[in-house]
Amino acid sequence: MKYLYSPFLMLLSITSYSQNVTFEEVLKLSKFNLTKVEEYLGNKGWNYAGTSVDYGKEFVVFNYGKSAFSDAAQSFILYKEGPPDGRNILIFQLNNVQRYNSIVSRLGSLKFKYYDSKVENGKIIKGYLREGCILLVTVSTGKDHFDSTRTLYSFTLMTENK
After folding, report:
1. CA-CA to 71 of 20 to 30 Å: which in 2, 9, 62, 150?
2. Buried residues in 59-68 as b, exposed as e (16+ CB within 10 A)
3. Are strands 123-130 and 113-120 parallel, antiparallel or unpaired?
4. Residues β-bridged to residue 47
5. What angle do CA 94, 100, 101 make, to 5 degrees?
6. CA–CA distance, 120 with 122 (Å, rounded to integer)
7. Is 134 exposed, middle or buried (0-12, 13-18, 19+ CB in 10 A)?
8. What is the CA radius of gyration of the chain?
9. In angstroms, rounded to a whole number, what is the distance separating the alpha carbons of residues 130 and 111?
10. Is 101 helix (H, G, I), strand (E, B) or coil?
């Protein structure tokens, strides 16, 4: 009987993972307008979660893998479309250290060059540059609704809007 369930569970896990986005897809999304971002993420199983004011700007928020019992989710994307000839801002947040390490290990192959790092307000912030794009990688901790410490990994992309 367990052999019957194994292929089903494998298919379910492959389907669930395939609905998420890769960092390469996030890079492409950072160049899109809001309509394209919303449609693309919706087709990948992400949900619109409202807006949030961060850094003094209003962002549109999307989540993936949201808990039915709280606002916790596997990943978040916050998006702010820039003015013409300005910069779009896209923040990709996740709480999975393996996924974080996988993304960071590929930054060089994606043509990002490290330029600076610092610790500020208890957060590690690393900066990378690539033609037309600034990337800030932030590692921070905080308490969840069970008062457990969680680590949050954020990738903030500021991409030319041409």
Report:
1. 9
2. bbbbbbbbee
3. antiparallel
4. 63
5. 170
6. 5
7. middle
8. 17
9. 6
10. helix
Task: Find, among 62, 58, 54, the residue nearest to 37 by Cα.
Answer: 62
Six token digits for residue 147: 């008062």
Token pair of 80 as six digits: 């702010």
Residue 151 contacts residue 137 (beta carbons within 8 Å):
no
List, for residues 53-96, the tens digit of each pLDDT value: 877 889 999 988 776 666 677 888 999 998 877 899 999 999 89
98 CB-contact burial (10 Å; exposed 0-12 / middle 13-18 / buried 19+): exposed
| pTM, two decimal places | 0.82
Residues near 30 by beta carbon (within 8 Å), at least 6 away in sequence: 88, 90, 133, 157, 159
Both structure tokens of 38: 């919303």
